[in-house]
Design a protein that fits this description.
106 residues, mainly alpha, 2 domains, 4 helices
Length: 106
């Protein structure tokens, strides 16, 4: 193989390295700051609500853009996950519903 296939612009590599350092510093800094703050009941409730808020803010734009089929698949996946507590089965069921909906033209 030639070296041209694996060549990269030095500025690009430098930018990726800088972004990696900043990302690590922010994550490590978050752990450092949280290790020094007292966890009050109010802060605990906020931290416990955070994963749900992140999921909703990630999934909602996808559902709004995807339409009815995506919404139905999400409902199926959530129902199966709540009932069985098995992520893989929930994903498989949602994919099966998506395939069925796409086959019917929805």
């Amino acid at each position: 193989m030639t070296d041209a296939a694996f060549s990269a612009d030095r500025l690009f590599v430098l930018a990726v390295l800088c972004m990696s350092v900043v990302t690590y510093a922010l994550r490590a800094g978050g752990y450092w700051v949280m290790g020094r703050l007292p966890i009050t009941p109010r802060m605990r409730r906020g931290l416990e609500a955070l994963p749900g808020a992140i999921i909703v803010s990630t999934v909602l734009p996808i559902v709004l853009q995807g339409g009815l089929a995506v919404g139905l698949c999400l409902i199926v996946a959530a129902a199966v996950q709540v009932r069985l507590r098995k992520e893989y089965i929930a994903v498989f069921c949602a994919a099966a519903v998506a395939a069925g909906l796409r086959a019917t033209g929805l």
